[in-house]
Amino acid sequence: MLAVTGLDTSPHRAVHGSRRDVLPPPSPAYVNAGPFSPYFGATPATGFPQAYGKAQPFVVKGFDATELRRAYGATATGLTGKGVTVAVVDAFDSPTLGPDVAQYAAAHGDAPYRQGQLTRIDPAVWTDTVAASQEFPGGCGAAGWYGEQSLDVEAVHGVAPDADLVYVGATSCQDSDLTDALDQVVDRRLADIVSDSWSDLETDTDSSIDATYDQTFMRGAVEGIGFYFSSGDDGDELAASGAKTVGSPVSLPWVTAVGGTSLALDRNGNYGFETGWGTDGAPLSKDGSNWGRLPGTFLSGAGGGTSARVPEPFYQYPVVPTALAGANGGRKRVVPDVAAVADSGTGFLVGQTQTWPDGSTRYGEYRVGGTSVACPVFAAVQALAEQAAGAPLGFANPELYERYNTPAFHGVTDTPLGPRTALAQVRVDYHDGVDDTYGYDVSLRTMGHDSSLHAVKGYNDVTGVGSPAPAIWPPSAPASRASPATRAPPASPGPPAPPAPPVSPVAGASRAPGGPSLAATVSHGPCPAAQAGAGAMSVPERFAVIA
């Protein structure tokens, strides 16, 4: 027996009374408003008030995978992920995924999908597809997951264009269904690397489910499968939930937790710098004369911090500062392990079919952020590393921490240009999310301000050991990449799980995404970008309207 639940009387979000087997149409359309900078800092917003002593630049339009490959050093290697299979696990399955990803690849110069390169595995029926409501408290809002799915597939394919892709759609966003999807990957050895842009809050989950997840992840480790999870998009979660906490299952010892950064490229498209992702927002005043009190209000940032219940795994001992590991008494697991681009102001362009105000459904593109971007990007980086290694990387954390403070990673801080240089961008949004019919919302977004979390020199709870640098290829320590058939079971990163056979996954809660700007917290949903937590999608925050 791995877990027992249902013995307490406290409310839980896992309600299975909202069964709906028909997937809804695409979610409402979203369009980014300009002006944009062609690269970070290129176009000062001279028509708006200064901040921090100068006119701050407009945000960029959004990166595509070609730019991310170059920024993180993959282009020069020639690696493409050939021979590696990456699985993406989300809830539901977008009815327009096939044509959407093909159109996106063509529009951005990505390699076209070859026959059979993308496989989709779905259950016989869908459940809980409606949005959560008083009548259907277990609703998942299936349409909100379509953008997460499109993002994950497009990001992986763009960064690792020759890797095979397997999309596994869970029946719903409930824990029991998501764990079923993960078990399919392990039971059928569907992939080498698994990208999961969803999570719940540790404070909202029953600790008994940890053993169920751990058992899946440990079996995967023995088979040479690595699991990657988004760390969340609400920083320490205090503002969003009322208590400081980390995500789950991202905080478990057998997964790689992916945090977030703000990425700046130079005029030539090369890596400029990164800050820890943390955004404070200040709206333009009604008279357009100032931004109010800076830096503004915390909006979103990479999830991170110290677990309240997961012991510190062995691979973190030599690297994670005692002040972080001991924040909740004893020594506990600290999140994240690594990081990649996540800031919605320096985010990734995603393409998907959306529902437009005139009722039509058609393809469109928009810039998104959140650790929902960082997770598939880093998973794709690992696909390139696995190709270079010539064998499965499997559970990568021990090796990732061995390579801490080496040229394999960019050490990311909140003040990459010095402590006296504040970094910010001006962002313009359509008030209705689609066009200028109802005017614009304008705000100043200050970077490197992640709630109570700080990206400082060395390991930190915003970016972990850092973001990928060119020296991450090829990886070292070939012994850790032995064939799964001959590899001995890995040493336990924490207290051993009960030696029991698999059991039915435990039910849990799952919260679906909202709209563009991704990061999903399930109470299990996708990883949101500019707003949400471990994996949901959310429309950017609205501020003062200007005609």
What is the chains' assembly state? single chain
Morphology: globular
The parts where pLDDT drops under 50 for at least 5 residues are: 1-20, 475-491, 495-547
Q: If you compute it from the alpha carbons, what radius of gyration comes out, rounded to the nearest whole angstrom?
A: 21 Å
**Which structural class matches the secondary elements?**
alpha/beta
Work out the helix count: 9
Tell me about the largest β-sheet: 8 strands, mixed
**N-end to C-end Cα span:** 62 Å
Mean pLDDT: 86
Helix content: 10-25%
How much beta, percentage-wise?
15-25%
Record field, number of beta strands: 24
Task: Give the topology.
Layout: H1 65-71, E1 85-91, H2 97-107, E2 118-121, H3 143-159, E3 164-170, H4 175-187, E4 193-196, E5 198-201, H5 209-222, E6 226-230, H6 238-241, E7 247-248, E8 256-265, E9 271-276, E10 278-283, E11 297-301, E12 305-311, H7 322-325, E13 332-335, E14 338-341, E15 348-355, E16 361-368, H8 371-389, H9 397-402, E17 409-410, E18 424-430, E19 440-446, E20 467-468, E21 519-520, E22 525-526, E23 535-536, E24 545-546
Parallel strand pairs: 1-3, 1-4, 2-3, 4-6, 6-8, 8-14
Antiparallel strand pairs: 5-7, 5-22, 8-9, 10-11, 10-19, 12-13, 15-16, 17-20, 18-19, 19-24, 21-23
Helix pairs in contact: 1-3, 2-3, 3-8, 4-5
